[in-house]
Specification:
With about 80 residues, this protein is mainly α. It contains five helices and no strands. Helix 1 crosses helix 2. The longest helix has 22 residues.
Length: about 80
């Protein structure tokens, strides 16, 4: 069971980091799963093994355009 959780965590971390980078270029509504997975280096199969749809990924992690924008803003101010 621990290996499954580690794999899930790795996929989520990659997707989250990719999403944050992509959100610097365009709004959340314009990012699709294929390009997110490509940027994250994660297959679509892996994405859908962990989440039923994009909204579940965003909801599960409390991600919405406002919180992501705030995260990006805070990150940019500290670099």
């Amino acid at each position: 069971m621990a290996r499954k959780n580690e794999a899930h965590d790795a996929v989520v971390e990659s997707l989250t980091q990719a999403l944050l980078l992509m959100m610097e270029q365009k709004p959340l509504a314009q990012i699709n799963i294929s390009e997110l997975c490509e940027k994250a280096g994660v297959s679509r199969v892996s994405f859908y093994r962990n989440f039923d749809y994009a909204g579940e990924f965003y909801f599960y992690y409390g991600l919405n355009e406002a919180t992501i924008a705030n995260t990006i803003s805070n990150t940019n101010h500290h670099t």
